[in-house]
Amino acid sequence: METTPNGTGPLPSAAAEFAPASTYLNTSVCGLLPRRAVLAVNTLARELAEGRPGGTGEWDEVEAVRASFARIAAVDPSRVALGGSVSVHVGLIAASMPPGAEILFPEGEYASVITPFTVRGDLELRYVPLEKLADAVRPGTALVALSSVQSADGRVADLAAVRAAAAAHGARTLLDASQSAGWLPLRAGEWDYTVTGGFKFLLCPRGVSFLTVSRGAQQALPPVHAGTFAAERLWETAYGPIGELAHSARRYDEPPAFLAYHAARRSLGLVEEVGVDVLHDHALALAARFRAGLAELGHRAVSEESAVVAVPGLGQDTAEALAAAGIVVSVRAGRLRAAFHLYNSAADVDRLLDRLAP
DSSP strand E in the chain: where? Predict the structure, then answer.
């Protein structure tokens, strides 16, 4: 496990794995691919182009990704299902809800967490401010669904309070860790379901996502898109109906995009080598430096203690001016949003602040 260098410089692994051509502060949209992941994609693509036996992709690589994410999420690999997008995982959960079930969300939650439930048309959906979410759980609430870190502004939910309230009222829980996994420690076993897009702070390509399902929740979650990879005995039941589904959460797997998963094994390996605790401290130190600099410029960030920092009063025009200067950020809900990860340094923060100065 690496240690954060003095002065919040880039982590030691960054120089070996990343060479961004910009000041990249946009991991909330998409993380940079490490060199090792790019090499894995290139190797597999070349093998396929040349018709070599390994070019179709290796299942062992996919299982290695499952095991790696399980370690990052502090959950048994048997509780991890693999896929290509968060919305498909959420759709599976939404399809399992009985008609009339009450689903509770924070106001302004990301659309992929909400929309699979709204299209049902027969569920009772309720929205409350994020800070009141735990207090809003009540008898009859079937599911509380939220992101650990809000995409729009970087706010970190009171996860312990939400879990306690859900347990007190017998509600299940769904956590989207897409904006946090890779810098905020995750204990997926504390939730009935977690969903995570791998292409942000986990540094994977798009096409890699994770669903965790507790043993209890698995009893109520039908594998409605079960295919070849849902069989307990892989490769033995490729023809005809599968008589025995996987006993583990693999029954919910989508067919893997092998190019993406070959890369994901290397990306997750890097996250494990560095260590989420180190990434957490590094990202928060940079975010704190940014917030302090913003305050000196007369701006107040929305979020505290988050690697994702949103700035009211600075929007699209500011982001476009920064892009012209080689600084990549994003705008969400009308606010400038910057995110910090292992390839960022104090110099990146200072360059951004210099450009924001009058």
Answer: 23-24, 80-83, 102-106, 124-128, 141-147, 172-176, 193-197, 209-213, 308-311, 327-328, 330-332, 335-339
Exposure string over 251-270, b if 16+ CB within 10 A, otherwise e: bbbbebbbbbbbbbbbbbbb
Q: How does pLDDT run across 71-108, given as a tens digit for each residue?
A: 999 999 999 999 999 999 999 999 999 999 999 999 99
Structure tokens at 313: 């009063």
Please, are residues 252 and 213 in contact by the beta-carbon 8 Å criterion?
yes
Greatest C-alpha distance within the chain: 68
Is 202 a residue whose pLDDT tops 60? yes
Task: Give the pLDDT confidence of 263-299 residue by residue, as tens digits.
Answer: 999 999 999 999 999 999 999 999 999 999 999 999 9
The helix/strand/coil state of 335 is strand
| pLDDT band of 7, cuts 50, 70, 90 | low
DSSP string, 141-156: EEEEEEESB-TTT-PB
Q: Spell out the residues 6+ positions from residue 219 whose beta carbon is closer than 8 angstroms to its own.
A: none
Q: What tokens were used for 128?
A: 């409350």
Task: Specify burial of residue 161 (Cβ count, 10 A radius: 0-12, 13-18, 19+).
Answer: middle
Measuring CA to CA, which residue among 257, 242, 337, 342 is closest to residue 290?
A: 337
Residue among 115, 166, 160 at smallest CA distance from 144: 166
Q: pTM of this prediction? A: 0.95
Helix-strand-coil split of the chain, %, nearest 5:
45, 15, 40
